[in-house]
Amino acid sequence: MNSIIPFSFLEIYAKKSTLGFQNTYKLFKIFITLILLSLIFVMIGCSIEDQDFIPPIEEPNSIFKILDKKKAVLNYRNHCGGCHGQDFGSFVERSWKYGSTPEAILKSIKVGYTKNGMPAYNASFSDEDLKDLTNYILSEIEGKTKKMLEANNPTLSGLIKSDDLSFRLETITDKIPGIPWAIEQLPNGELLITELGGKLFLIRNNKELVEISGVPLVVTEGQGGLLDVVVHPNFKNNSFVYLSYVIANPNNVSEKTTAVARAKLSGNKLTQVKKIFTALPYLSTDRHFGSRLLFDRKGYLYVSVGDRGHRDKYPQKLENSLGKIHRIQDDGKIPNDNPFYNRQGAISSIFTYGTRNPQGLTLHPVTGDLWEGEHGPQGGDEINILKAGKNYGWPVISYGVNYDGTSFTNITKKDGMEQPVYYWTPSIAPCGMAFASGDFYGKWENDLFVSSLKFEYLHRLKMNGNVVVGHEKLLNKIGRVRDVHRGTDGYMYIAVQGPSRIIRLVPEQ
Q1: ∠ CA(507), CA(209), CA(144), 5° rounding?
Q2: If you average pLDDT over residues 399-417, what whole number do you get?
Q3: Distance CA 362, CA 437 (A)
C-alpha cells in the first residue's frame, strides 16, 4: 500500500535532524502507528471484496403505507367486499377501466363512477381513510394471481356435516370460461348454464360441456350481460327456452336495458329466437338490471327488473318498467287480469313495484307463492312474498343506508307498503335462491337457500311456514355463489364464481 513508509526514511531523517533522541523516539512511534493503520485498511478492503455485495435495506414503498389498517380492513369489508369479493378476487389480474395507478384508484373511490355502479366516498371517508383503503387494496393484491386465490378455496371432498344433514359435494363442471350466472335443469337431467359474458352452455349427463349457438346479441357492460335462463313448463313438447339479457337501444347504443327472448332449443343451437319483453326506458347506467325469470303453476312468466341505479325516479312510478316485477304470458302478451292492466298510463305488465335490484325468484313448494330476493344498498337486503299490485317500498322505506354510510330514508315501515319476510343488515349480497323440496334432504325440507356474493357462502334460512326461525351458513368461502337451483331431479345445484364451477349437493343416505 502507498501509505507504508520505507524504513530508510527514518534513518535519513534522524541524521539530518537536530532533534534529540527523544524526538527520534516519538517519530518512530508515529511510523509504527501508520504501518498498523495501513494493515488494517488492507484487511478491511480484502474482507469486503471477498463477500457478496449486500445492498442497503430500503424502506417499504410509502405508497402502501397504511396508518390505520384495522379501519381500512373494516371499510373494505363493509363497503367494497360485496361487489369486489372479500378475497379481492375482482381486483386480481384485472383490466382497470379507469387506471391502475394508486392515484387513479384513489380517485375512483373518492369521486366514484355512479353510472357504472361505483359510489363516491368523499363525503363519508376522510382523505386519510381514502388513502389507507387504496393502499390496503394494493397491498393485498400485490403479487397475487387468480390461481393463487383459487388454491385457497375449501376442498370439495369429504363429508360435510350441517345442523340437520350430512352431505357431499359433486363438481359437475369447472370448465366454464367466465362467470356462471344461472342454472336450469332440463327434464332429461342435462343443465343449461348462462355465462355473464354472453354464452349459453349445456352440460350433458356425462358432464361434457357444450356451447349453444344462436344466443341473441348481448351487451356486457358493468353488471349487464346474459342473465337468467328458464325452460317452458311444457318443454318436452315445445322445446322453448327463455333468456333474460341486456340489450342496447337500437337508436342510441350508449343506452341499454333488460330484455327477455324466447327460442327453441334444437340440439346444440337456439332457433326461432324472438324478443318478447323489453323494460323501458333505456338508460346509460350499467347497473341494477335484475334479472330472474320464473314460471308459476298457471304458466305465467315473471320477470324481475332493477331500478337501474335511479332510486328516486322510477321504482315508485307505474309509467315505467324499472324497479318492478312483471307478469307476462309465455309469448310475451299481457294477461288481462294483471293488477294495472286497465290503469291509465301504467305499464300493464307490472305485477309488483318498489323494488331495488331483484336477483332472486322462486316458488314455495307447498303454497306456490312467489318469493323474491333483492339487493339492498348498505344493509337492507330483502326476502319478500309477492302479491299482485303490492308496493314493496323502495326507496321510501328500507332497512339500509347509502354505500357511503349516509341515510336516504329514516323510516322502515309505512302504510300501503309491504314488509319483508326477512332482511339482512349488514348485506350479504343475495343472488339466486331456491327452496328444498320433499324429503330428499330430510330436515331441510321447505327451507330457503340463498346464495351470498359478498361473504361467499350458501345461506340456509330455516323456515316454519313463512317465518324464519333459524340460520345456517354452508360452504363458507367456497367462492361468490351466483345461483342456487332445485333441479327436476330433486338435487340442489349451485353456481360458483372464483373459480367458476357448477356443484351438486348430494345428501348422505
Answers
A1: 85
A2: 92
A3: 12
CA-CA distance, 6 to 311, in Å (whole number)?
94
Record: fold of 62-147: Cytochrome Bc1 Complex; Chain D, domain 2 (1.10.760)
Residue 233, SS3 per DSSP: coil
Residues in the chain: 509
**C-alpha cell, 411:** 323510516
If DSSP states are collapsed to H, E and C, what string results for 244-293? EEEEEECCEEEEEEEEEEEEEEECCEEEEEEEEEECCCCECCCCCCCCCE
Architecture of domain 153-507: 6 Propeller (2.120)
User: Which of 79, 84, 288, 459 is an active site residue?
Assistant: 288
pLDDT tens-place string over residues 465-478: 999 999 999 999 99
Give the model confidence (pLDDT) of 211-270 as tens digits. Answer: 999 999 999 999 999 999 999 999 999 999 999 999 999 999 999 999 999 999 999 999
Rama region for 85: left / alpha / beta (φ>0; ψ in -120 to 50; rest): left
Residue 182 near residue 504 (C-beta atoms within 8 A): no
With CA atoms as reference, report the closest residue to 292 among 404, 366, 384.
384
pTM: 0.79
pLDDT for 319-338, tens place per residue?
A: 999 999 999 999 999 999 99
288 is catalytic: yes
> What three-state secondary structure class fits 197?
coil
User: What are the residue boundaries of the structural domains of the chain, listed by start?
Assistant: 8-50, 62-147, 153-507
Instruction: Please determine, for residue 171, whether its predicted confidence score (pLDDT) is greater than 50.
Output: yes
